[in-house]
Amino acid sequence: MIFFIIWLLLVGYAVFLAPGGEADPVLSNIFSGNFGEIDPLVFAVFNSLGLFPMVFLTLLLLNDRQKWPAWPFALLSFVVGAFSLLLYFAFGDRKAERRLRTPGWLVRFLSSRFWLILLMVSWAANSLTLLQGFSLTAYREAFFESGLVSVMTVDWFVLWGLSVYAVHRFYPEARLKIFAWIPIIGPVIVLFINKKRLTL
C-alpha cells in the first residue's frame, strides 16, 4: 500500500504542483541541442534517469518470479521512471511459486561481469559531467522554473529509494548491502561483490 500511496503523491505532484509554464527552459534547451546552457548537475540528473532503469532492468529480470511479470514495468521505466516501478512494487511484487521468467541467456548476460562493469562505467562517465563545474543555486532556480527538472528530481529520489529497497527485497543474504545506498551504482556494486554467492 505504501508504494501506491507514493505513486499517488508522485502523480499529484507532477500534475498539480510541479512549477513551470508552457515554455520549459530546460526542455527547450534539450530539444534544441543547447546543452551548454544546461547546468552540469541538471544534465547529470537528467542522464541518470536513463541509468536507473538499466539498474532496475537488471534487478527485476534477475528476480522475475513474482505475481506479475516484471519486464513490462522495467522497460516502461525508461520512459516514465518511478511511475511504472511503483505500481509493480505496489501490486505485482507478490510471492508466487513459479520459475524465473527471464530466459537463461539473458540471466547470464545481466549477471555477467561485462554487464555490471558496463553499468559502472556508464555511471562514472555521467559523473564526469560534474567536473565541468556545477551550481546548486542554478539547480535550485531550474527546479522552481522548470517542470521537467522539478519532476525528474522527485523521480530521482523515489528511484533511489526503490533501488535500495529492491536490493534488500531480492538479496537479503547479500554481503555489504550498505553499498546499495550509493545512488545508481550501489546496487550494481552489491551484485558484483556477491556474484559468486547469490543464486541469480
From TrEMBL:
<keyword id="KW-1133">Transmembrane helix</keyword>
<keyword id="KW-0472">Membrane</keyword>
<feature type="transmembrane region" description="Helical">
    <location>
        <begin position="41"/>
        <end position="61"/>
    </location>
</feature>
<feature type="transmembrane region" description="Helical">
    <location>
        <begin position="178"/>
        <end position="194"/>
    </location>
</feature>
<feature type="transmembrane region" description="Helical">
    <location>
        <begin position="73"/>
        <end position="92"/>
    </location>
</feature>
<protein>
    <recommendedName>
        <fullName>DUF2834 domain-containing protein</fullName>
    </recommendedName>
</protein>
<feature type="transmembrane region" description="Helical">
    <location>
        <begin position="112"/>
        <end position="131"/>
    </location>
</feature>
<feature type="transmembrane region" description="Helical">
    <location>
        <begin position="143"/>
        <end position="166"/>
    </location>
</feature>
<keyword id="KW-0812">Transmembrane</keyword>
